[in-house]
Amino acid sequence: MQMSINLTVSHLRGVVALADCGSFTAAARSLGLAQSALSRTIADAEQRLNVSLFVRTTRSVHATADGREVAEHARRILLGFDAGMRDIESFLTGDRGSVSIACLPSIAATFLPPHVLAFRQANPGVRVSIKDGLLANTLAEVRAGTVDMAVVATTGPLAGLNQEPIGTDSFYCSVPRTHRFALRASVGWQELAGEAFIAFGPDSSIESIARRALADAGAQLGSIIPAENVGAVAGLVAAGLGITAVPGMVLPMMQFADLAHIPLTPTVTRNISIAYLPGQRQTACTRAFIEVLRAARA
Q: Taking every annotated instance into account, which residue ranges of this chain make up the domain HTH lysR-type (predicted)?
């Protein structure tokens, strides 16, 4: 049902100020208005409500019973309105709001935490949510617009997305400490030929990079056991069932297995990038978080 009462915020502020001050001169001064402008505002409010809100005398102004009631309601409305406007202002300036980020599990576990911490310390009123998953799922979240941005590891451009590199991540050979590679300063990709190998699953961004590097080196692996996550890969390597190739960002997630990690040569890297939809208007919160990541790159 449409309401017949049509008061503006200016009407409400005028009624509250006049009820509090008891004088058109003082109320107008508190609102930064001319006295005549406030007088017109109050008269218009009374006409719209069809009641007398104030009794005017030559010396003072007193709220009527209706005026006191309307002023109290107006005061509550203005408190909510002003709080809402402050929230909107804080959102637009980036002081309040939210940032949603999709990323790979290794990035969520090792790369993002210090940057999220720095961002939260500078922007305590902003909520940060992180959705970690496989690369295909992460990119699908960005393309669907269900997250503000993604932080991913790739070796090339991403179709249909803006991509901004913020770092690189090189590969290591992870082996049990009893393995012949364990004390080496480096291991060539070609030396992995014939080795039993623990491979990441076909949906992993790591697997495709490692497979390409092995092919480029002409290394034919021995038996291969695929595993879907970092913990499983590390556990299988620790059990002596094979060795593996992993990017440096993953190594902290494998500490429990007490493995040796040796740089692989020639160096193979994956690019750590911010990805977002082209033409998408980013919120102030998202722009602020991207600046934190850019600062890390610098």
A: 7-64
The predicted-structure confidence for 145-199, as pLDDT tens digits, reads as follows 899 999 999 888 888 899 999 999 999 999 999 999 999 999 999 999 999 999 9
Joined together, the tokens standing for residue 81 give 């309105």
The kind and range of the H/E element at 288 are: helix 284-297
Write phi, then psi, for 104 (nearest 5 degrees).
Answer: -75, 155
Alpha-carbon distance of 250 to 233, in angstroms, equals: 11
Q: How far apart are CA 82 and CA 90, in angstroms?
A: 12
Same domain, 154 and 275: yes
Residue 4 in any domain: the answer is: no
In a shared domain, residues 36 and 119: no
Residue 120 shares a structural domain with residue 248:
no
- Domain with 201 in it: 168-269
Distance CA 136, CA 133 (A): 8
> HEC string of 25-86?
HHHHHHHCCCHHHHHHHHHHHHHHHCCCCEEECCCCEEECHHHHHHHHHHHHHHHHHHHHHH
CA-CA distance, 4 to 59, in Å (whole number)? 34
Please tell me whether residues 159 and 173 are part of one structural domain: no
Q: Assign 89 to helix, strand or coil.
A: helix
Say whether both 155 and 174 belong to one domain: no
Domain count, the chain: 3
Helices (H), 94-193: 105-106, 112-122, 135-144
CA distance 136 to 285: 25
State the CATH number of the domain containing residue 158. 3.40.190.10
Tokens representing residue 187 in the block? 């291991």
Identify the CATH number of the domain in which residue 49 sits.
1.10.10.10
- pTM for the model stands at 0.66
Query: Which residue(s) pair with 198 in the sheet?
Result: 225
